[in-house]
Amino acid sequence: MRQFCEEVAAHRQQLGWEAWLQYSFPLQLEPSARSWGPGTLRVPNRALLVNVKFEGSEESFTFQVSTKDVPLALMACALRKKATVFRQPLVEQPEDYTLQVNGKHEYLYGSHPLCQFQYICSCLHSRLTPHLTMVHSSSILAMRDEQSNPAPQVQKPRAKPPPIPLKKPVSVSLWSLEQPFCIELIQGSKVNADERMKLVVQAGLFHGNETLCKTVSSSEVSVCSEPVWKQRLEFDISIGDLPRMARLCFALYAVIEKAKKARSTKKKSKKADCPIAWANLMLFDYKNQLKTGERCLYMWPSVPDEKGELLNPCGTVRSNPNTESAAALVIFLPEVAPHPIYYPALDKQLQLREILERRGSGELYEHEKDLVWKMRHEIQEHFPEALARLLLVTKWNKHEDVAQMLYLLCSWPELPVLSALELLDFSFPDRHVGSFAIKSLRKLTDDELFQYLLQLVQVLKYESYLDCELTKFLLDRALANRKIGHFLFWHLRSEMHVPSVALRFGLIMEAYCRGSTHHMKVLMKQGEALSKLKALNDVVKVSSQKTTKPQTKELMHLCMRQETYLEALSHLQSPLDPSTLLAEVCVEQCTFMDSKMKPLWVMYSNEEAGSDGTVGIIFKNGDDLRQDMLTLQMIQLMDVLWKQEGLDLRMTPYGCLSTGDHTGLIEVVLHSDTIANIQLNKSNMAATAAFNKDALLNWLKSKNPGEALDRAIEEFTLSCAGYCVATYVLGIGDRHSDNIMIRENGQLFHIDFGHFLGNFKTKFGINRERVPFILTYDFVHVIQQGKTNNSEKFERFRGYCERAYTILRRHGLLFLHLFALMRAAGLPELSCSKDIQYLKLPVEKAKPPAFGAKTSGLKLASYFEDGAGRGPPWLGSERRALPGGGAGWRPPGSLGAVLLGGSVTCPERVEVQGDGAPC
């Protein structure tokens, strides 16, 4: 890996200025829409007022261009404007320049229209004038040369490692061995258990999640620090049938003595087993050679499992690095042949497959083979996306079937990204399958790869060897795009405290830094800033327990004014977004929040960025942000999918990044406030604040006078629809007025995603979450522009919800696969397949789209209610009177039924959830 990364770094020094610009500052574009429909915020082809200045000059020029113009046309206009103002001949060419966003490491270049750049779109929606700087190509080349200088070597450079020696000419093919596979269990060490119990070792062979044969157990021995077995364990599988990625799994546990068991009932109780530790071992090394000889396995402490499983096949194959205190097992893998035993190379497998075909189909297939295996050639030709299903029915403990499967894989059509992602799961450990999946993923664009990067880093935990195709793929793309490299580094760095992955992740980080020495300096600067923020947060926590908040805040400012703090916290790229420059820290605006962990609120200013130069970050120390990061990633993915269909729901997936053990950063969304604060500030009495239906609308009126109010209400309507659907699909709980916010321009967004996938809060055994998402009457009051029977506006809102959910249902499998890959992260609410069942979006198979244009409202309501496989969702937490229906309450109905059932009128009363917080 190191050699590969250093070669990439050397090649990068030879890049031209345009190619180097693409690596260092990749474009930030809006998703391109395939079709635009009514209700979307389409950017029209109209005049755009821009402000452009030239690098090294204070003069700037303001002029109009079309939103459909490309950057080259804008730069040509700027050069003509400059020549006209200064009465100089036009000699400079626009091809020698590029456009930089003022105060940011963000550039506009290429053949994309201006309206497709995220910065320009943001300015258009906010009605702000874009401020840009013309940068000459010579400045870009100077940056390239400066950053290409090799970092000073701490030690003498080592020579290239010698090539891996070839296989010995005399070797034995694994498939020529028919004797059963066995091992010898010798002894244990540092075992801690109750002396009244007995020790037992259980061993099993696995290929992914599949058990290759029946597990075996050792005899019981008395508890002691150094238990001795010296026992042969034989498995019901021949050596020749071991698959290449087979792993040997051990579990050490204690049981009650037999004398005590005799008094119990005949039914054996699994509760009598007390798991102590586990360990896994790959049977083949990275050179395909079967391991032999004595091995000492330092084990990992067992964690109680709901299923009562003792073995942990999906756990790491690395030994516990804490060798001084970890329990250990000593085993012996016998040498069954006079020469090294190798798993046959692929060409040998293909040769065997041809031999088997010549023997006749009668010997190839057993009568127990199911239809999927028998129809594998038809699947390859007509249903290649079903490769994962075929791999799951392959008998990996039969080398003939393995050869057949790998032969098919050689000619299998390239898969779409969705199917390739599924093959990265732990259920498919074969190296050839993994290489095929990576081959299919190479067509991902940088933006698409960035969207799935969080899952791909977690999949690294499933890899059995340090040097694998997935690692090479990620390093290759990271070294070609600095943004991908930035987030790859931090996703790896955030889990360096986990012993089972520290070695692997550390080596990958080292390889990346050797391939991008200048970026390493930038990352080190960010690391120093985070260390200072952690120390500052510790000071705030201690002080807040002894003094008042103003006194603690003053102490915080005093620390931040120290030279070491100012130097570490200023002039760095934001870890949340490497294109954002955190220039000068505004000490007086910095504070801390009142929650238990006292998060730090740090504000920065950047004069070069003009009026848009204020940036804020929240530093958290003590909270696990990985679940928030995953939830925001999914909301961002939904936003991309909607925009690709021409539906812009004005979502706000703010930045969130886990940077270490229970530490991380959150982006401050400026010019926004919580629903609770708005209701409180716009009400005369705090006790009735939650029931003031006019509070939100009045607040928006105060922030958006005149014609701007209609635009703000439309922003509110779009974003409210988006978050209604997003929180429903993801099963996000603990929603209340303190974690729902509104920006001054009308955009609504949610924060704090501590519970998802239907893991709702309960109090005294009662579920506090009686609704799947929040749509209170004051929200509807804003949507209807304060009018009681404005059914037209609510119809638009209903249409947004319907269309948004329809789009997500078409991509249901994508969300299922991404959440499945995240199981390796070990999140408390996403640890097994059962947790993902909540996400089961209905996916039509060989049927007309249930959400097509000709679908009736009743059918749509049925799919919306029943398709997700859970109880009927309600519209908000308030009960509503039937529109024009006389007396009585409308019973809770499905979301589709409510949204398709007419307008909403003013309720006679409001039901408040849980602790009294408005919902």
Automatic annotation (TrEMBL):
It is an enzyme of class 2 (transferase). GO terms for biological process: adaptive immune response; B cell activation; cell differentiation; cell migration; cell surface receptor signaling pathway; chemotaxis; inflammatory response; innate immune response. Residues 45-136 form the PI3K-RBD domain. Keywords: Adaptive immunity, ATP-binding, Chemotaxis, Cytoplasm, Differentiation, Immunity, Inflammatory response, Innate immunity, Kinase, Lipid metabolism, Nucleotide-binding, Phosphoprotein, Transferase. Pathway: Phospholipid metabolism; phosphatidylinositol phosphate biosynthesis; Lipid metabolism. GO terms for cellular component: cytosol; phosphatidylinositol 3-kinase complex; plasma membrane. It catalyses: a 1,2-diacyl-sn-glycero-3-phospho-(1D-myo-inositol) + ATP = a 1,2-diacyl-sn-glycero-3-phospho-(1D-myo-inositol-3-phosphate) + ADP + H(+); a 1,2-diacyl-sn-glycero-3-phospho-(1D-myo-inositol-4,5-bisphosphate) + ATP = a 1,2-diacyl-sn-glycero-3-phospho-(1D-myo-inositol-3,4,5-trisphosphate) + ADP + H(+); 1-octadecanoyl-2-(5Z,8Z,11Z,14Z)-eicosatetraenoyl-sn-glycero-3-phospho-1D-myo-inositol 4,5-bisphosphate + ATP = 1-octadecanoyl-2-(5Z,8Z,11Z,14Z-eicosatetraenoyl)-sn-glycero-3-phospho-(1D-myo-inositol 3,4,5-triphosphate) + ADP + H(+). One of its GO terms (molecular function) is 1-phosphatidylinositol-4-phosphate 3-kinase activity. Residues 586-876 form the PI3K/PI4K catalytic domain. It is found in: Cytoplasm. Its EC number is 2.7.1.153. Residues 177-344 form the C2 PI3K-type domain. Belongs to the PI3/PI4-kinase family. Type III PI4K subfamily. This is Phosphatidylinositol 4,5-bisphosphate 3-kinase catalytic subunit delta isoform.
